[in-house]
Amino acid sequence: MMINEVEINTKNLNRDRFNMSSELNSIQNSMKEMFESIKELDTMWEGNAKSEFINQFIKDYATLNDICKSMVEFMDCMKYASEEYSRCKNTVNDLIEAIKL
How far apart are the first and last CA of the chain? Predict the structure, then answer.
């Protein structure tokens, strides 16, 4: 059986987007705290291990930044989908109302 339509619950979609946004803010705040902690740690030790640790942290931090950017893009898509679905639903409702006798 092939499904020919998809029903979207914009309330759930918007709730999920809000939850993702809250989690993203929490992640970004934790990233800032972690960055500050690493800056402090950087002043406390010397040597090859320090360089390796800092270099790996910078790579991991950049990767996490990229993930955050992807989450923002995904949430933007969710917002667009919600708005478009609502717009289409309203258009259909208006058309139905227009042909009612």
Answer: 36
CA distance readout (Å), 26 to 30, 38, 39, 79:
6, 18, 20, 20
Beta strand extents in 1-101 (DSSP E only): none
The values of phi and psi at residue 71, to 5°, are -65, -40
CB 81 within 8 A of CB 9: no
Euclidean distance between CA atoms 14 and 90, whole angstroms: 17
Taking all residues of the chain, what is their mean pLDDT, rounded to a whole number? Answer: 92
- Contacts of residue 78, Cβ cutoff 8 Å, sequence gap at least 6: 13, 14, 16, 17, 20
Question: Span 33-53, mean pLDDT?
Answer: 92
Per-residue pLDDT at 31 exceeds 70: yes
Cβ(81)–Cβ(19) below 8 Å: no
